[in-house]
Design goal:
Layout lengths: L6 H10 E10 L2 E10 L3 H6 L8 E12 L6 E12 L8 H24 L13 H18 L5 H10 L1 H8 L3
Antiparallel strand pairs: 1-2, 2-3, 3-4
Length: 175
Amino acid sequence: MKETQAPYVQRERAAERQTATSHSKAHGRQEQRTLTSTTALNFYLQHTLGWSSVRQVFRVTRECAWTDRVTGERKTSRETVYGITSLSRDQANAAHLLQLNRQHWTIENGVFYIRDETFGEDRSRIRTRSGPQVMAALRNAALSLLRLSGSTNISASLRSCSWNTQRTRNLLGIV
């Protein structure tokens, strides 16, 4: 049996919670993301678990609908993830947290995927001492130089630099 709460308790709970929703349609999919944030768990997390920097807890629910290309059948998926943040309500309301959560994948796709696929970072045999960190820094520097020069296709630009040494020198500022 569900217990009903007094109206003032319901108002307090509603004040602790914020919700934001975004809709997008791309690549034949319709996606809806709903983020609900709360400050209700702060006291528990800070005093019981010792997480002193926690300011909000949030839940992101992603619902995706698409049509299967082979069968023509309409399919849906639903995924729920949870997170914590040190950003206060004043710094990031639910809508801003949803935007920040979405931008995380921009970094993942724009940097790490390119470093792995174009530079073959996961296949690298350099594994000792500071070698992996140095190589990651060099890959990041090369990626930044190419992006600053206006390159949109990193792998084509790398191929161009490999046979056109003058372009490489120009990128490095060596005349």
